[in-house]
Amino acid sequence: MTRGFGAGDTFSVGDLVAQRGEKVKGRLIAGSLADGSPISIPVMIIHGRQPGPVLYVQAVCHGIELNGLEVIRRLYQEIDPAGLTGTILLVPIANVLGFNYRIRQTVFDLEDLNRVWPGKKNGRISERIAHLLFSQLVARADYLLDLHTGSATMVTHVRFFGQDPTCSGLARAFGTEVVVDEPLDENARAQRFDGKLRNVALREGIYGITPEPGGHSRFDPVAIGVGWQGVKNVLVHLGMLDGTLQLPSEQVVLKLDTQPLTANWGGVFMSQVRPGERVQKGQVLGFIYHPQTFEVLEEILAPEEGMVLSFTENPVVHTGDRLLNLGLIQGVWRQPGNFRT
User: What pTM did the predictor assign?
Assistant: First the structure.
């Protein structure tokens, strides 16, 4: 069931107009820099021959998370609107300022763009970018894919809100071997997760997931392939493209532990586990040693049985730095079949 925005013969965003069976490219202006240069955000529309759902796909919300950019490039080049049911809205670089300066945050206000949705019309630059994209594009969609990347020390996965069956279906269809139910609890709210795009959109009846394929600041061909296949899977799942879902034989379902393991002592962290590794309660996950004496200052133990989602890329740590994130194993989705615990 669509929200009705994709039913017309034309689909307009700003000055950009796409006819049925057409794809077009343009830009939205979010403001300007001190030298007068416009802050322009690239926007693309693939308006299918047949009416149907509207899917919003965004990448580079964080300026160094690049694999989604290449996924969207392939999507725009390879999807034929003549064979598409519905409409795809594409934003390959949401955070153009972070992208240009090669940093995660938005330059100038140093804000995390994925904590300020739906933004503010008269806010700081990150809030204005979020408001522009949300009001002009996201609010007109039925579904969304917010393509992020993790780090070289993070397992490829999809994050979703597990209490909503539509979101669960999107996560399953995307097809990563690990999926992570990210609850919006008190700890998550304390980290401003209620300002994440996916969570804000769901409050407006727009169902979404956040894929996390590969590392940042580089292109990872394997992760890009996972992302590209995942987007195609979602299009098939939503009935927007003909085809067959390409899924792994099983998908491990984790619940995110929003209280990551942190360092009590400064020093050098040596991980003893790898991303995606299953661990037992009490297992040694790593240790911190003194860089001058090599004395072991602290062992890091698994508080529960689970799976390693990620650990810090930089082993030089201070007291309070994040060391590892664990996911608690909730069950397994097997193909075909139902959710099993």
Answer: 0.94
Give 119-141 pLDDT, tens digit per residue. 999 999 999 999 999 999 999 99
b/e 128-143 (16+ beta carbons within 10 angstroms → b) = bbbbbbbebbbbbbbb
Q: Return the CATH number of 261-324, one of 2.40.50.100, 3.30.465.10, 3.40.47.10, 3.40.120.10.
A: 2.40.50.100
The residue type of 218 is R
In three-state secondary structure terms, 50 is: strand
Q: Are 104 and 70 in contact (CB under 8 A)?
A: no
Q: In angstroms, rounded to a whole number, what is the distance separating the alpha carbons of residues 139 and 133?
A: 9
Fold of 10-248: Aminopeptidase (3.40.630)
By the 8 A CB rule, do 160 and 172 touch?
no
Give the tens place of pLDDT for each residue, 160-208: 999 999 999 999 999 999 999 998 888 889 889 999 999 999 999 999 9
Asked if 10-248 and 261-324 have one fold, the answer is: no
How would you class 93 by CB atoms within 10 Å of its CB: exposed for 0-12, middle for 13-18, buried for 19 or more? buried
By the 8 A CB rule, do 230 and 170 touch?
no
Rg, Å, the chain Cα set: 21
Domain map (residue ranges) of the chain: 10-248, 261-324
Tell me if 233 sits within 8 A of 171, measured CB to CB.
no
Q: Are 191 and 109 in contact (CB under 8 A)?
A: no
Q: Token match 């669509």: residue?
A: 2
**Cα torsion for 95, 96, 100, 103, to the nearest 10°?**
-10
